[in-house]
From TrEMBL:
Protein known as: GntP family permease
Record organism: Halobacillus shinanisalinarum
One Pfam family linked to the record: GntP_permease
Residue spans crossing the bilayer: 32-51, 58-79, 103-125, 137-156, 176-199, 235-257, 263-285, 306-326, 338-355, 362-382, 388-412, 433-450
UniProt-listed InterPro entries: Glcn_transporter
Thylakoid among keywords: no
Keywords carried by this UniProt record: Membrane, Transmembrane, Transmembrane helix
Superkingdom, taxonomy of origin: Bacteria
């Protein structure tokens, strides 16, 4: 099948994935696989080729980024359970100062969410947020928005968070992870600032009714956790892998080779760099026992499993689409200004935003969008570290728009802050809309400058 018939089949396949997950609550893993088989069969591919495309797409993506996702999740769980996340929060608070508590919460959230899922990060830091609000005399809502938006920014933009890593793997940018991290941090800064400004503007006007909650005291919360890890041990599992990946990217860009450079290229490969991060995270363990070495790692593997399955199914979905005649169609459209000009960077954003708003999961939106656009990129000549990194940023920006009632993170923020649904719409949903718009505007400016 080719022409408009093929386009219609692919569109129907995407609509099926959206409806199956959003309307009928089918797990994205199954909806993506069913959609992949349906597109392959309806597009007229030989049945054996459909099976081969699904298997190769699933296995190929897992071979590229599966271990990276697992290692990143292990680091996140150990940071959470060892108290390192709270130690990082305390350090950032001392640096920023208690006179700017909302800014401190934005910064804390953005750092913690690089390896830790934003839902978990919000739960971990929720009591700290309320205690700091009481201590500094600011509204809980403003602290809630500052924390949630700080967490959300890096969750969708900066590896080793699973979503951006999956996107990089899907579009062939896994060899440029250092560049993806660099641009993720560049784009995330104005996005974090946007969340902070909204926290100061809207959050200070939202009054949350106090329920029968426990009395939050900052010093008691810190003391109640017991002895926390040192600052170096707390930051090392995040900072060391990023530095290794970044240095490896510099070596590759400069064309250095031989001896020590080859060794650092080995250390800077994403799998090895994240494994080094795991080793540094072992320094955080209060003791080496079955609880820490088996149970904590087991929790991480359980958290990683759905992400791995969705990512693999997304790879299968994209592989089937790539096996159709879509490449020939793209070649025919390649002369369009929509595809060749600066407007192209908005296409991944729009697709990801539609998927995010429809089915709720930012990670699923990132995975599905990256698989959909992957076949377009080689045909349009979009390749190399910078262009592909900015495509990842565009997808991440779309995956912010918007967090509302079908998003688990929306309910985490609402429930742990005590806001009503109306207040949460004004605070969280509006904030994520503004963040997504700012992210795509910054990305489009970078696209104009560098591409």
């Amino acid at each position: 099948m080719d022409g408009m018939g093929l386009i219609l089949v692919i569109v129907l396949g995407v609509l099926f994935v959206i409806l199956a997950t959003a309307k009928f609550n089918l797990h994205p893993f199954l909806s993506l696989l069913f959609g992949a088989f349906a597109i392959g069969i309806l597009a007229g591919l030989p049945l054996a080729d459909v099976v081969e495309a699904v298997n190769s797409g699933f296995g190929g993506l897992m071979g590229g980024i599966g271990l990276v996702i697992v290692f990143g999740t292990i680091i996140g769980v150990i940071l959470e359970k060892s108290g390192a996340a709270l130690r990082m929060a305390e350090v950032v608070l001392r640096m920023v100062g208690e006179k700017r508590p909302q800014l401190a919460m934005s910064a804390i959230g953005s750092i913690v969410s690089i390896p830790v899922f934003c839902d978990s990060g919000y739960v971990i830091l929720s009591s700290l947020k309320k205690a700091l609000a009481k201590r500094t005399g600011v509204t809980v809502a403003s602290m809630a928005i500052a924390l949630s938006t700080g967490l959300f920014a890096t969750h969708t933009l900066v590896p080793p968070t699973p979503g951006p890593i999956a996107a990089a793997g899907n579009i062939g940018a896994d060899d440029y992870l250092g560049t993806v991290i660099l641009f993720g941090l560049i784009v995330a800064i104005p996005v974090i600032i946007t969340g902070y400004i909204w926290a100061m503007k809207a959050g200070t006007k939202i009054e949350i009714e106090e329920g029968d909650e426990e009395d939050y005291d900052y010093d008691e919360i810190i003391k109640g956790f017991g002895e926390m890890p040192s600052t170096f041990k707390s930051f090392a599992p995040i900072v060391v892998p990023i530095l290794l990946i970044g240095f490896s990217s510099i070596i590759t860009f400069a064309g250095w080779s031989g001896g020590l450079f080859d060794f650092f290229l080995f250390l800077g490969s994403p799998v090895v760099a994240l494994l080094v991060g795991v080793l540094f995270s072992f320094l955080l363990l209060p003791k080496f026992s079955q609880e820490t070495l088996t149970d904590w790692v087991g929790v991480a593997l359980k958290e990683a499993a759905p992400i791995l399955l969705i990512t693999g199914a997304g790879g299968a979905f994209g592989s089937v689409i790539s096996s159709t005649n879509i490449a020939d169609l793209i070649k025919g459209m390649a002369g369009s200004e929509l595809f060749t000009g600066a407007l192209f960077i908005f296409i991944p954003f729009i697709i990801a935003a539609a998927l995010k708003s429809a089915q709720g999961s930012s990670t699923a939106a990132i995975v599905i969008t990256s698989t959909l656009i992957a076949p377009l990129l080689p045909q349009l000549g979009i390749e190399g570290a910078v262009p592909l990194s900015l495509v990842v940023m565009s997808i991440g920006a779309g995956a912010m728009v918007v967090s509302h009632v079908n998003d688990s993170y929306f309910w985490v923020v609402k429930e742990f802050s005590g806001m009503s649904i109306t207040q949460a719409y004004k605070a969280q949903t509006m904030a994520t809309l503004l963040q997504g718009v700012v992210a795509i505007l910054v990305t489009s400016i970078l696209w104009l400058i560098f591409v």
